[in-house]
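Database export, one record per block. Field names are fixed; values are copied verbatim from the stored entry.
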Amino acid sequence: MLVQEAKVQKDNFNTITAAIKPVLDCVDVEPVPCLDSRQQGQDTIIQRCKAAWENFKNFNRDAVLTAATHALAVVRSHYPSVDIQSIGGGFADGLSDTQT
């Protein structure tokens, strides 16, 4: 019974790994393959998923920072009299969502 359960779990893991691996290969660097042609272990796939998620979050943060910096640079170049510090301060206090 336990042997069959373990086999089912291993088959499920292999199915999930086969589906996830192409996506990981697109969004993250593929690790160097093992010299003895062993399959990647569970820990390797899980670590790759965690690393890809962290890399994705860092990419998004950097993209937002770059876009915001660029937008403020364009505002400053077209409207030199605008106070950039007031833009960074957010919306005025006491405004409703409609007024904002």
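Remark 1: The helical segments are 2-27, 42-78, 84-88.
Remark 2: The radius of gyration is 24 Å.
End of record.
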